[in-house]
Amino acid sequence: MVTNVPVRLVRKDGELIPLDVTELVLDVDRGVNARTGLRGGAQRFAIDMNRPKAVILLKGYIVDDDLSTGVSLGQKASASIDFSRKNNTDSSWVGTGEGGDLTSLAATLTHNDFGSFLIPKLTLIATDGEDYEILFIKSSTAQAHNTASSGKYHVSIHDNSDMNTAVEIATNLVNLINSTATADNVLLSNRFTATLEQSTLSDEANTLVKIEQKVTGANGNTTVSWNSSSLYTPSIKNFKNGIDDSAGFTGKSAGDKVAELYAVLNNSNDGGFEMRAIRKSLKGSRHELKDKYSDYIGGIQIPFNSTVNADGEKYKAMNFFMPTGGFRKSSEKEATAAEPASSMIDDLNSNRDFRFIKGAVTKATFVQMGGEPIYSFDIQFLPIDRIL
């Protein structure tokens, strides 16, 4: 059965802004102009340079949330690590040892060595602010703490005879996080829980590890870091969707929503050249960058009912996508390439993410209806791959 998923504007920090849309217009102008030939006979010719213009028009209304008095139980933040793919690419993270993959790295490592600077290190931050490091090493012990008196957590990527598969590595990490075998391991299991799931990138079973904070609250919305070269980094999504417990009225009024959206659209910045310069020089605090550019609206998720992706059901909610760029295969433009409407976005800077359409809001009009706490809106969104 299809789930009622709204159109959602996407901020740079990944926060989604749902909209009650009553009218949606997806417009494409190919820019092809026909001309009549000089030989007569009313024959026409044109040149198609594949330089289309696109605009998305949204009309709808903004109303109060279902405001209620009582206690909200909050929500735990969750993250994920997909060991089937590296850095949201189509390449295998484990690989075959031909270079630039985990198998090639493992061949250079020594059994139970924790000292090499090339060893991948995963860092998880709990709701109390404490961080926990897990090293991915060559070891005949699948997972443990204090192996070879290192005093560190580890997960085996190679058993000192053969390379472990993505499923085995993911399983090792889940077992480590959930283990209560020793007092040291309880440090992890008291703060996180982990489960195996199917990859959303490769569709491989048991290669994605979902990690959930044990404690409810927004303090669990922390970064998941990976220290090694990007050549050896799997696909990672930071901890998100942690919500604090609360009492009293919860939610936002229509006025709250319009006030925030109007303020953001009047003064927000994508970062452009400054962000690229900072990334290149590796200067600046991540928190400062997040605060400065986090509220910029740089994408949109528009759901549609799909039959070809419904897995036996009548419909499944999927997101519209825009496969720009050269050398796109025809299969990448078929409805089967769409991603589920419930998909979370990890990297809003990606130009190859089918979970949303990248771009910017270029115009928005809000009208209060008859003095009531209801606003209508007209929003114009332009799909854009790069904003300077």
Key terms:
388 residues; alpha+beta; 2 domains; six-stranded antiparallel beta barrel; 6 helices; 33% strand; globular
Strand content: 25-35%
Number of strands: 21
CA-based gyration radius = 24 Å
| SS-based class | alpha+beta
Q: Characterize the main sheet.
A: 6 strands, antiparallel, barrel
Helix segment count?
Answer: 6
General shape: globular
* Main sheet: strand order: 1-2-5-21-20-17
In N-to-C order, the SSE pattern is: EEEEEEEHEEEEHHEEEEEHHHEEEEE
Approximate helicity band: 10-25%
Q: What's the number of domains? A: 2
Low-confidence stretches: 279-289
Average pLDDT value?
84
**Terminal Cα span:** 41 Å
Describe this structure in words.
The chain is globular. The chain has two domains: 7-67 and 251-383, no CATH class; 78-240, no CATH class. With 388 residues, the protein is of the alpha+beta class. The two termini are 41 Å apart. Mean pLDDT is 84; it is low at 279-289. Strand 1 and strand 2 form a beta hairpin. The chain contains six helices and 21 strands.
Describe the secondary structure blueprint for this structure:
Layout: E1 7-11, E2 16-29, E3 35-36, E4 44-45, E5 53-62, E6 69-72, E7 78-86, H1 102-106, E8 121-125, E9 131-138, E10 143-145, E11 153-158, H2 166-178, H3 183-189, E12 192-197, E13 208-213, E14 225-226, E15 234-240, E16 246-249, H4 254-266, H5 272-281, H6 286-293, E17 297-301, E18 303-306, E19 316-319, E20 357-368, E21 375-383
Parallel strand pairs: 9-11
Antiparallel strand pairs: 1-2, 1-17, 2-5, 3-4, 5-21, 6-16, 7-13, 7-15, 8-9, 8-14, 10-11, 12-13, 17-20, 18-19, 20-21
